[in-house]
Amino acid sequence: MSAVPPLVRRCSPVPRHLGEPSPVPPPRRRALPGPGPRRWLVLAMMLLLVMAVPPPGAARAEGTRWQWPVPPPHEVAAPFEAPATPYGPGHRGIDVAVPGGAPIRAVEAGTVRHSGTLAGRGVVSVVHADGLISTYEPVAGALDVGTRVAAGEVLGTLEGGSAASHCASGDCLHLGARRGESYLDPLLLLGARGPSVLLPWAGAGSVAGATGPGPRSPSLL
């Protein structure tokens, strides 16, 4: 008998594209989103913050921030009168009726800038954190220049019977406020007169004496 040839199974050849990995398509670029409403809102808020910061020399509003340097009653013998020109007549501060020897306290925390005699009268000045200067006269200072003080801390005592007093009928404290070369109304800082107003904002300057008009009828605040 003749041998039976083995059965040969024929398989179809595997196509090359089935045996190789499929090519990976390149990543698609996502389009950048346009400035939506939320983005515009953030930009607007940033612009408002930039505009809210005043540049040097700009104006700023002064509001209630001081405490009275003497206890009540606060009898103002002469109010503030802004001079028409830097060297013109006016009353660069307020006069508060106070008996001689009364302790005079700092209206706000700061550093003693001057404490001594100036033009024949005792003058104490304190520079505060933002450059605002408070002045007190005629006052015999009790602290050295450079001393840091808290609001309400005693700076000295009122000189009784001083020839430099602005009040002819008795002793009084002349309280002044300056920012650079500009004088401010202390009553605004004390919260005793109307709303705040815009005043020049400049750096601190030197201590200057105040001039005042004749005595006025006192007003009680």
Describe the structure.
With 221 residues, the chain is α+β, with helices and mostly antiparallel strands. It has a domain at 60-208: Glucose Permease (Domain IIA), CATH 2.70.70.10. It has 3 helices and 14 strands. Strands 2, 3, 5, 6, 7, 9, 11, 12 and 14 form a 9-stranded antiparallel β-sheet that branches. The chain has a 3-stranded antiparallel β-sheet with strand order 4-10-8, with no helix packed on it.
**Helix share bin:** 10-25%
How would you describe the shape? elongated
H and E order: HHEEEEEEEEEEEEHEE
Instruction: Please report the distance between the alpha carbons of the first and last residues.
Output: 142 Å
Query: Which structural category fits the helices and strands?
Result: alpha+beta
The radius of gyration over CA amounts to: 39 Å
Poorly predicted ranges: 54-61, 194-221
Superfamily (CATH H level) name of the domain at 60-208: Glucose Permease (Domain IIA)
- Second CATH tier, the architecture of the domain at 60-208: Distorted Sandwich
Number of contiguous helices = 3
**Percent of residues in β-strands:** 25-35%
Summarize the structure.
The protein is an alpha+beta fold and 221 residues long.
